[in-house]
Structure prediction request, 419 residues.
Amino acid sequence: MGPFQYRGNELFCEDVALTKIADEVGTPVYVYSRSDIERAYKAFDAALDGIPHEVCYAVKANSTLGVLGVLVQLGAGADIVSIGELYRWLRAGGDPDGVIFSGVGKTAAEMKTALDAGIGCFNVESGEELLALDKVAQENGKRAKISIRVNPDVDPQTHPYISTGLKQNKFGVSMAEARQLFRDAANSKGLAVAGVDFHIGSQLTKTSPFTDAIARLVDLVQQLAKDGIKLEHVDIGGGLGIDYGKGDGLPPSPAEYGVAVRAALAPLIDLGIKLVTEPGRVIVGQAGALITRVLYRKRNEAKHFTIVDGAMNDLMRPTLYSAYHPMKPVTNPDRPAQATDVVGPICETGDFFARDRELPALDAGELLWIGAAGAYGSAMASNYNTRPRAPEVLVSGSSYTVIRARETYEQLVANEKLV
Ligand code: LLP
Prediction:
C-alpha cells in the first residue's frame, strides 16, 4: 500500500485529499508523504540489521530542507556532492560528522569548506584529487579522512546516463590504481585512510551488479590488508531501484538487497569493517508525486494530447531518461481509457510526461497524479521558460505543510541586472 490511495473516488496522500492541496496551494505542486519517507528509510535500515552500518542519504535525490529535516530526525547521515548540499544538510540540522562528500570535481575551496565543517569522509575519485586534498588539508593543519572510490567495471544494466561503474565512465579509479593511491594516502601528512567506496549506477533492478561489484571490493580490501592498510568502512553507494509501475518486473526489495549484500560482504564483516550506503531514490522516490492540472485536450491527425500545467522543467525524467512515471486521475478513476500524450506548455517536443499512455480520459480542469516523483523530481527542476519552480508540500497524517513555496517572478530575476 503506497501513501497515495483512493478513498471513494478521490486520491489522497495519507489523510489529505489531493484536490484540497491543489486548490489551496495551486498546481503544479509536489506532494510528499512524511510517513512513506519514514517507512522507506526504516525498511532500508532494517534490511542491514545485524551488520554495523550507516545509511547516508544521497541528498541529490531530494534536497528540499523539509525533506532533509525528516531524514535528520530519522538519524540518517548524508552523501553530498557539493557544498550547496552540505549547506542544506547543516541547515536542516544534520550532523557534519555523518557526511560523506562524493564527486569527481571537488574544488580546493569546497575541500576547505568541508574540512572546516568537519565532515566525516571525502570519497576521492582520482590521483590528482588525492594530491589536491592532501595539500588543502596540510595548509589548514588538518587530516582529511578519505575513501578511494573505485570503478569496479560492472554493468549495472540501467539507463546509460545513470550508469557509473563501467570503465568508460568518469567515476572512480581502477582497482589497480586504487591500491597505489591507498599507499600514497597512507604515506601522506594530510590524509587519513578510512575506507573504500563505489557507486555503480542508479535505478538498479537486480542484485547481481551489486554483488559482483562487492566481490571485487572484497578482493581489493584483502590485498590492501596485505599492504598493511586497514580500513574502517566499505561504502557500496546507492542505486537500488524502485517500481515505476511500468509492469516490466519489480526491483529487489530493500530486504532482498540486504540479504544479497550481506552475503557478498561476509568476508569483510568478520574483519569488523563497517558498511556505509548512499541510497537516494529508494528513500524518497515513492513518497512523492507531482500533481498537475489539465489545461486543454486536442487531437490532430496523428495523436491525442492532454496538455497539463506541469512541464519538463518541473520533472525532467521522462524526457531526459525516457523514464516512465505512473499516472492516475485524482478523481473518478473508473472511466474508459484512451491513448494520449501527456505534455506541458514548454516550447519543445521533448516536453512530455508520457507518450501514447492509456489513461482514463481527463477533462480540462481535472487533476492528474504523476507518481514515483519524490526522487530527482524537484531536485532537477529548472526555471526554463521562466517558469517558477513548483511548490512542495509535506503531508503528515491529516495535515500538510508547504515546505517550499512557489517561486515568485521577483525571485527569478533577483540576481539579474539591466545594462
Ligand atoms: N551515491 C552517489 C555517489 C551517486 O552519484 C548517487 C546518484 C547516489 C549515491 C544515489 O543513487 P540512488 O540511490 O538514488 O540511485 N537523475 C537520475 C539519477 C541520477 C543518480 C546520480 N547519482 C534519475 O532521475 O534517474
Notes: Residues 58, 60-61, 79, 102, 162, 199, 202-203, 237-240, 278-282, 317, 321, 375-376, 380 surround LLP (CB under 6 Å).
